[in-house]
Amino acid sequence: MDQEQIKRLISEQRKFFDSGQTLDVGFRLGALHCLRKAVKRREADICAALREDLGKSRTESYMCEVGLALSEITYMLRHTRSFAAERRVPTPLAQFAARSYTKPSPYGVNLIMSPWNYPFLLTIGPLTDALAAGNTAVLKPSAYAPASSALLEEVIGECFEPSYVAVVTGGREENRSLLQAPFDHIFFTGSQTVGREVLRQAAERLTPVTLELGGKSPCIVDRTAKISLAARRIVFGKFLNCGQTCVAPDYVLCHKAVHDQLVEEIVREIRAQFGDEPLQNPDYGKIINRKHFDRISSLITPEKVVFGGQLDPETCRIAPTVLDGVPWDGPVMGEEIFGPLLPILTFQELEEAVRIANGLPHPLALYLFSQDREAVRTVTSRCAFGGGCVNDTVIHLATSHMGFGGVGPSGMGAYHGRAGFETFSHRKSIVDKRTWLDLPMRYQPYSEGKEN
Prior knowledge:
Elements: H1 3-18, H2 25-41, H3 43-54, H4 58-83, E1 87-89, E2 98-106, E3 109-113, H5 121-132, E4 136-140, H6 146-159, E5 165-167, H7 172-179, E6 185-189, H8 192-204, E7 209-212, E8 218-221, H9 227-239, E9 251-255, H10 259-274, H11 290-297, E10 305-307, E11 311-312, E12 317-318, E13 321-324, E14 341-347, H12 350-359, E15 365-369, H13 373-382, E16 387-390, E17 404-405, E18 411-412, E19 414-415, H14 417-423, E20 425-433, H15 448-451
Helix pairs in contact: 2-4, 2-6, 3-4, 3-6, 4-5, 5-14, 9-10
């Protein structure tokens, strides 16, 4: 789709939005019902597309994409009417007599740019929130996940007219054309590098932006942690989707006293969850493409590998790999890994761990394994991060009852549930003044009596 076609598409969506149809809550609910039916009807096709792009098993595809998307749609079907209602607030005495209230208002025509690592969930999730808030949307899935992008185009085409919701496929040229178009709001999920460009382009038009980015999310394990359970949950969160998860534990920072036991348990858990030969496990995924395979492979320092490290360039698969004794200035610590490599570093005192975590750019997630409630209070209060878990990993994003988003370089804004509705809305503040009384003090001419 070229720039002129994109302009026409946006013009058609703006015309549809200006008609006022999306302001009706019943219309919004009907759209969400249609989307839910389509997702359920095409579930097998969605899972097949995710296996083709990322090697995901059917179970993982449902657990981490289809199921979470359906959960968000169901939540919005239950709550959109209350979210869309006016909210009355107190009126100051000086404004008597009046009614003061806030009224949520959709932004209008939205651009939703989604990534390749969870191509279905991270498209349908924000779309659900945008529709619930009364918007139209142009979806731009990643060209790196072609099977999922093609299926999204089919599913959306079955549900909606392009003047309401449309999918634009393609690569950099389409991205550039979209970012130069006059949207009312941009929702972007992806890398920090591309996020900066999205923000720069949006600034040209003062377009509001929501950025869901990433970063090096730490996993702190103190000496009071239940090590075997910590290892099981760290392995699950780290190697889910072959490590290509924006909130995956990027590195483990463990107390020196539990280091040896933790490494041993992590290796045991990798074997238990993926087998002695993970590259032969049909339920273990693959790296999205050769470019990323080569990048991740280059981060492996062979002498630091204590488990894994096997590579299969033909299928773009990298075995779960544990790296120990990694220096802070080593290649694997210089960037977000976004792959199945787990560096393990140590600390002596919790204060040191806090200082290390805060010395790096604010991450999208932080995880702490500890039985010490004071340690939990210290880390969750003093460390800056988007969200996280205590004694688990990644599950904090699997709910519509809390917002999900980053802070600083890991993102701005949040979505899921009410937070998502608010992200795609502007809340108008309105005073409805009565006409039967008009206090004279504010009007000229001013006098000493009015001043008193």
